Protein: AAA+ ATPase domain-containing protein
Organism: Miscanthus lutarioriparius
Amino acid sequence: NFISAVVPPNEIGVKFDDIGALEDVKRTLDELVTLPMRRPELFSHGNLLRPCKGVLLFGPPGTGKTLLAKALATEAGANFISITGSTLTSKWFGDAEKLTKALFSFASRLAPVIIFVDEVDSLLGARGGAFEHEATRRMRNEFMAAWDGLRSKESQQILILGATNRPFDLDDAVIRRLPRRIYVDLPDAQNRMKILKILLAKEKLESDFKFDELANATEGYSGSDLKNLCVAAAYRPVHELLEEEKKGRVSNENSYLRPLKLDDFIQAKAKVSSSVSYDA
Ligand code: ATP
């Protein structure tokens, strides 16, 4: 269980259309990854077009890096393997070599495959100097060696997709192996509106719901913050209804959840604030 997930492409359940905003990021990933994985024959001639073997997604927390990774596997028709840097290093001290070898030999049998390494900084962060744990160092060296083995097999459709909120903590050797780096930014008002429309697509909303007002009222919110805000807002009619039932004003049989109002979201902001602050 050091691999947190192995999912075939038709079972991932997220595609690019489910991700609001990030249009440039999706376009870049399509060209770098989807196209070579779907049409490998177009990348096997000459020297200019080569399938990309390593991509880094970096940016503030909650901006959709994990979501992008999963959707990319769907779009590219690739199996999806997900591992998390911090669990690898904390749980598997000692077995580093064996596990890394197992991971890579397993992965190469699943090609086309995307290996998503979340928190890549904690697995492959800057070398920790004299105090670094011996097992972490071994794990890193082993990972790099296995990774180089894969990279040298031109024909194999295996992509390592790293994600981090802390790109400056990454080792130079890792940066070199992830030649394409894509910044996943916090959404501006217009992009928050796009995300909100996706998050609320299946909810019952008051008629003429003012998406633009909500987008303007959520400066600094990441996609993940917006999701949490929507969940908190959606609880308000539920709590109201339960309250009414408790008072005996409505019975369970004819309970009716009212549509969500802009004010539910404004009130919910007290519970869910933006996790990235500009105060620093
Ligand atoms: P972290 O850096 O904290 O791991 P992350 O960048 O990987 O975060 P995700 O885990 O992908 O972010 O996002 C968390 C959740 O927020 C998603 O499962 C999704 O519900 C929502 N979300 C984030 N960004 C978007 C977006 N652009 N469109 C729709 N939903 C989004």
Q: What stands out?
A: The mean pLDDT is 87.
